[in-house]
Amino acid sequence: MEKELLINDETIRYSWVRGEGDQVELTIEGQTFKGRLLEREGARAVIEFEGKNIQTWKSGNHVSLGDFSLKLENPRDKRKKKGSGGANNEMSSPMPGKILKHLVKVGDSIVAGQGLIVMEAMKMEHTIKAAFDGTVLKIMYQEGELVGGDVDLIDIEKSAED
Amino acid sequence: MKSFKRVLIANRGEIAIRVAKTLRELDIESVMLFTEEEKDLPHSSFGDISINLGSGPLSETYLNIERLVKICQKFKVDAVHPGYGFLSERAPFAKALQEAGVELIGPPTAAMESMGDKKTSKEIMEKAGIPLIPGYHGDNQDGDLLAKEAVKIGFPVLIKASAGGGGKGMRIVEQESDFSEALNSAKREAMNAFGDDKVLVEKYITDPRHIEVQVLSDTHGQHFHFWERECSIQRRYQKIVEESPSPALTQELRQSMCDTAVKISETMNYVGAGTVEFILDKDGSFYFLEMNTRLQVEHPITEMVTGHDLVQLQVRVAQGEKLPFKQSEILQNGHAIEVRIYAENPDKDFMPSIGTIDVVGESRLLGVRLDSGYKSGNEVTTSFDPMIAKLIVWSTDRTQAIRKMDKALSDYPFLGITTNRDYLKRILKHDVFLKGVTFTHFVKTYADDLGPRPLSLEDKALAIMTNGLISTRKKETREGVAVTTAWDQLSGFRLN
């Protein structure tokens, strides 16, 4: 059966079957890889991957392959989290901080990449930029207000695409 | 000679732990501070005595001089180790300790004061004949005079607002004919930004390297250097990769820089550990930048190549001991590298990140040193510096040390939060870095090469396999603390 996973927001289709003994055979883009779990200790594992032992880790959505850290998500969970509203990670607060300045106001037409809100976090200024073209519907916090991490700061109606 | 029985560490995180390790080895008790928020962090219980400073802004906790002096008296400490940052270069703290009869493991107050002020420190250096970046810092702001000074310095020059910072009121001028226009616009910008249009003109160094020399002096007039550290790889003016020796120096130039640093110590009758920072130009000229009168973040690489424990030497100097070795006995052996692991996202303009570190990791190499203020399960918040750990390796030569660092980083995923770890690995593997061509603009110049490499099919397959073979979920315990448990949720096959 074909399954789906998001690796760093890219959809990957794969299938896997149980091979000989405790081996797993993973097929992805027509290529098959063999693997086997050798050791597991909490979030850490040693996997025999294509005949070589590799140390990897996983906890929540975070996976580390040694050379790479990546984000791995189930597409279903992702859809659930995002909902159908205007929520967009790019326009939420990256971390707890203070709203310093609004660069736009409700009703403004904006273009992707335009600065919307300046916030201060960890003694540094960060500009929240528009992820797409649209119109500002609502700005959730006033200048000077403290906000938590990963909360929506601004609601934008996306321009109709051509 | 004094003999300390108990020392207060007026710091937190990795440096507090690092200092406590040496104190333990010296059989000196350590008094460790922590705040309510840091209860779970390893430094809170690492020493012999823990003191909870409660909560509140830094000014009421780690930076509250009066409070720290009271703690010293209450717990009868003999001396204070300030670490780096915080109160380590604050003369009022040194004075308050002196009045309370507590020794500061640091330089004399006068040295701290004169080096803490950029203008004063440069005046002292000029008098001592130490090379400074050629420039004009005078009050006369006449345009023709400034232009003449620029010619005297030699192009390219840098016009800088005296009151400046953050690149405002700053102009690089390549040739004489552009000077007057650049001067006017720098002055306008300076006036708008700082309300003061006074500028200075300095020689602009196109390809600078940041090289510093570790010095240490005892109270018996012995002034030593412990060779150099190359710290040119920086982002946002902060060092992220440091190494010793510097790949840029000939033995002759190295000796000349180290001798200059010792001359500075002598000029100031310096005591304790310090770092003299220089800017090195491509032609081999070097200029005094500043002197830090404290232990430096990157001190471990010096410890690795010289075999000396700098904190131990600091303590012995503070006890009044005459150090029993000669300069010629301090050797620079092999090659050491340090990388700073930050909770930040280099692919998003180095934006700091927060979250829980699920797994720190564990080395599978010989002799790797991780100086970390966090252990698995700890939360990284916005309250403190985003530097979460330093990883330090030593090997026989530079190529081998770089390779070892790359492998060492693989063992420390700091899983759960976004860090600069992968980015550091990209720097270590960059051809230009491998060749030792490390200028302070490295990170900017090669920004395009330092972005994330696309995942190969193998990477994706391994990631998916990892996901299938290690399944975890967050489970609430009775205390309501989220812990990560692992269990097998593979469907379609079982593991026997």
Q: What would you say this structure looks like, in words?
A:
- The complex is a heterodimer of chains A (162) and B (496).
- By secondary structure, chain A is mostly beta strands.
- Chain A has 2 domains: 74 residues, no CATH class; 77 residues, RNA polymerase II/Efflux pump adaptor protein, barrel-sandwich hybrid domain (OB fold (Dihydrolipoamide Acetyltransferase, E2P)), CATH 2.40.50.
- Chain A has 1 helix and 15 strands; from the N terminus they run ββββββββαβββββββ.
- About 5% of the residues of chain A have low confidence.
- Chain B is α+β, with helices and mostly antiparallel strands and 496 residues long.
- Chain B is built from 15 helices and 23 strands.
- Chain B is globular.
- The C terminus of chain B is likely disordered.
- The interface between A and B is large, with 53 and 46 residues.
Give the gist of this structure.
The complex is a heterodimer of chains A (162) and B (496). Chain A is mainly beta and 162 residues long. Chain A has one helix spanning 75-82, and strands spanning 3-7, 10-18, 24-28, 31-41, 44-49, 52-59, 62-64, 69-73, 97-102, 109-110, 115-121, 124-129, 134-139, 146-147, 154-158.
The CATH superfamily of the largest domain in chain B is ATP-grasp fold, B domain
Biggest sheet: strand arrangement of chain B: 14-13-10-11-12-15-21-19
Indicate the CATH architecture of the largest domain in chain A.
Answer: Beta Barrel
Beta-strand share of residues of chain A: over 45%
What is the name of the CATH superfamily of the largest domain in chain A? RNA polymerase II/Efflux pump adaptor protein, barrel-sandwich hybrid domain
Principal-axis shape of chain A equals elongated
Report the strand count of chain B.
23
As a whole number of angstroms, the C-alpha radius of gyration of chain A is: 21 Å
Number of structural units classed as domains of chain A? 2
Average pLDDT confidence of chain A is 84
How many structural domains can be distinguished in the coordinates of chain B? 4
Q: How many helical stretches of chain B?
A: 15
Quaternary organization: heterodimer
How far apart lie the N and C ends of chain A? 36 Å
CATH class of the largest domain in chain A: Mainly Beta
Please give the share of residues in helix of chain A. under 10%
